[in-house]
Design a protein that fits this description.
CATH topology of the largest domain in chain B: MetI-like fold
Strand content of chain B: under 5%
Distance between the termini of chain A: 45 Å
Number of helices of chain B: 15
Number of helices of chain A: 15
CATH superfamily of the largest domain in chain B: MetI-like
CATH class of the largest domain in chain B: Mainly Alpha
Oligomer: heterodimer
Structural class of chain B: mainly alpha
Number of domains of chain B: 2
Number of strands of chain B: 4
Largest sheet of chain B: 2 strands, antiparallel
Number of strands of chain A: 0
Strand order of the largest sheet of chain B: 1-2
Strand content of chain A: under 5%
Distance between the termini of chain B: 12 Å
Radius of gyration of chain A: 25 Å
């Protein structure tokens, strides 16, 4: 019978706590660092609650397009009959009813819940792809800078400084007109929603990768001094193998944490850009443009004004808490 | 030390040059025709070509960049084309150094437009930075000394939630509910110190500054809390407690003082890059600052103004970074080596 390494270790190590019974010892033996982290995470109630809410959002986000095509959600249908002569919704709380749980939109009578729900899908998709792209650029450049060092490192370092010195919101706003033309005319992205979404995703990532690259570079600087990296060098591992097979697997913890913190930042950024008119345009809803539309009715229809903002705030808070919880669980030394 | 300062400043200048070059390439490599926008919607091809020449858009990007740089150093004249200047000497505009360009759309030099807008943005940013440091540190310390209690959780949770709401929601809420519907606070209209005195200036800035400060305050609450908690475990704090110093004195004189340096540094850097937040705040409250100027310039694709604002904003960030680095080198000699 072969004994696994961890079993051997646990048997040979003297137990610092004294004389635990056999059962306890078996428990200790079977725990990988990942398992320990998951256990710590599960004990953290706040993180678990945020995790559940995040999962609900994701499931809801995936379901929304199907619900629309089956007719359960109707983000575009006009219900003029539900509006009074001032084109405000009839009834209290923005026209709340069983068929329109968040009321209807003033002026058009579109169902607010459908718009917010489908808007969540699109906002999450944009934020998700943008953060994955930013993470990819940041990780690759961070690994290369940290591992290669020397000239390459300082070139990437300067590139990071340069990117960070651009006012990103202003750049996204100012470049929207010319880059929309580039995307539709030169790259042949379909005009309209797709082109706007592509623009926002690509340019959020272009201005968003530097912090990730800095973080990863720092991590790689310590990883590259570890024995397994020296061993791989001795075996003549190729550069690509070094980067992606030896170093990358050791980075998943910081990557996961920064992903859960970058995503909510991009949800907020998409909303802010929508306010400035640089994102998917109505009638296709995103959380940002639904909220922007609702600003005109802020005084008269609080439910309509508040609901998209609350949906944004809740997901941003939950992702942030989830990120904090993951950081605490994965790195117990960093106390909050 | 002097060598470090010189090196840092040189790197900063190179960075600024690189940044301006990238900006030019980004804006001029695109198929969007800036002359078309500068000339307006109902513009004949002849007029368009004239506008192109007047602004120097007919030249290659690199040449435009060098003449822009020359304008910064010694000033330049518009129209950029010499023949056009000779043809209509009355319409020549002198743009003194440092010249950031000329907007045919607004018939003003970019310098004039920026110098009108800058005080507004500066005022909002200043008021906001005071608010977010003062309340951020105060609330952060409060959370730290009641660590783990209901109050602590409430404070951290509330500040996170306020940060999570989009700032244009908070701004619109303050404007429509506090100022208009409930009439609790007068509608903010920017008043310069020269016009209305310091009282009117400050009171009109309150709501925009609160909106802007919300973006940053949560971060400062968390950081202050973490720094104070961290320093509670330090030996010098333990010693101060052991020699019988009052808890409040230990907190203010020892624990907080150590935390203040990184906080002020952060605030300096955030202050320099405040333009992103100012864009939204100024649009909501209709303050004619740099942010609002940037929005209208990008709506009209007023290229000289856009490039001017991007470069000025970048210069602020780069300068702030240099200052922070040099200050750190003064405080901590180990930095100079690296």
């Amino acid at each position: 019978m072969t004994a696994t390494a961890s079993n051997l270790e646990s048997e040979s190590l003297p137990d610092p706590t004294g004389h635990p019974d056999e059962l306890d010892r078996a428990k200790i033996a079977g725990k990988s660092p990942t398992k320990l982290a998951m256990e710590r995470f599960r004990k953290d109630k706040l993180s678990m609650v945020s995790f559940i809410i995040v999962v609900l959002y994701l499931v809801g986000g995936i379901l929304a397009p199907f619900l629309v095509s089956f007719g359960f959600l109707d983000p575009r249908g006009y219900n003029q009959d539900l509006l009074n002569k001032f084109t405000l919704p009839e009834g209290s709380f923005g026209g709340m009813s069983w068929s329109h749980p968040l009321g209807v939109e003033p002026g058009t009578g579109r169902d607010v819940m459908s718009r917010v729900w489908l808007g969540t899908t699109l906002s999450l998709t944009i934020a998700l792809i943008a953060s994955l792209l930013a993470m990819a650029i940041g990780t690759v450049l961070g690994i290369i800078a940290g591992f290669t060092g020397g000239m390459t490192d300082s070139v990437i370092g300067r590139l990071i400084d340069l990117t960070l010195s651009f006012p990103s919101t202003l750049m996204l706003l100012a470049l929207s007109a010319p880059m929309y033309e580039v995307l539709t005319k030169n790259v042949h992205v379909p005009e309209g929603d797709v082109a706007w979404a592509t623009y926002v995703v690509v340019f959020l990532a272009i201005f968003g990768w530097p912090p990730i690259a800095r973080l990863i570079r720092g991590q790689v600087l310590s990883i590259r001094e570890r024995e397994f990296v020296h061993a791989a060098t001795l075996f003549g591992a190729s550069r690509r193998r070094m980067y992606f097979k030896e170093i990358l697997p050791n980075l998943w913890a910081p990557l996961l944490v920064s992903f859960t913190l970058l995503l909510p930042a991009y949800i907020s950024a998409e909303a802010a850009l929508s306010y400035l008119g640089v994102s998917i345009k109505p009638p296709t809803p995103t959380l940002g443009n639904v909220l922007r539309d609702s600003l005109n009715y802020a005084e008269f229809d609080f439910v309509y004004f508040f609901s998209p903002a609350f949906v944004i705030a809740l997901i941003v808070v939950c992702f942030n808490l989830l990120g904090d919880g993951l950081r605490d669980a994965l790195d117990p030394k960093s106390g909050r | 030390m002097l060598a470090y300062v010189i090196r840092r400043v040189v790197v900063g200048i190179v960075m600024l040059l690189a940044m301006s070059l990238v900006t030019f390439v980004l804006f001029f490599a695109s198929p969007a025709d800036p002359a078309q926008y500068a000339c307006g919607k109902n513009c004949s091809p002849v007029q368009r070509e004239q506008a192109r020449k007047a602004l120097g858009y007919d030249k290659p990007t690199l040449e435009q960049w060098t003449s822009f740089m020359k304008g910064l150093a010694v000033g330049r004249q518009f129209p950029a084309d010499e023949e056009l200047r000779k043809a209509a000497p009355d319409n020549v505009v002198d743009c003194d150094a440092p010249c950031f360009g000329y907007s045919t759309y607004s018939i003003k030099t970019v310098n004039e437009m920026v110098s009108e807008a800058l005080p507004v943005t500066f005022s909002i940013a200043l008021a906001a930075v005071i608010l977010w440091i003062f309340f951020g540190v105060l609330i952060g310390v409060l959370a730290a000394i009641t660590k783990g209690s209901f109050l602590d959780r409430g404070i951290v949770g509330t500040s996170l939630f306020l940060y999570a709401f989009p700032s244009f929601f908070i701004g619109t809420f303050l404007l429509t509910y506090i100022s208009i519907k409930w009439d609790v606070y007068p509608l903010p209209v920017y008043t310069s110190i020269a016009d209305g005195g310091i009282g009117a200036w400050a009171s009109n800035l309150l709501l925009p500054a609160v909106t802007l400060a919300m973006l940053y305050m949560a971060g400062y609450v968390r950081m202050t809390r973490a720094f104070v908690l961290e320093s509670q475990a330090e030996d010098y704090v333990r010693t101060a407690k052991a020699k019988g110093l009052a808890t409040r004195k230990v907190l203010v004189k020892h624990a907080l003082r150590a935390a203040l340096t990184p906080l002020v540094t952060m605030a300096g850097l955030d202050f320099a890059s405040v333009l992103g937040g100012a864009i939204i705040t100024e649009s909501i409250f209709n303050f004619n600052g740099l942010g609002k100027l940037a929005v209208s310039a990008s709506t009209n694709y007023d290229l000289p103004v856009l490039i001017g604002i991007v470069l000025i904003a970048g210069a602020f960030v780069i300068t702030a970074n240099i200052i922070v680095d040099i200050l750190y080198a003064f405080i901590d000699p180990r930095v100079r080596v690296g």
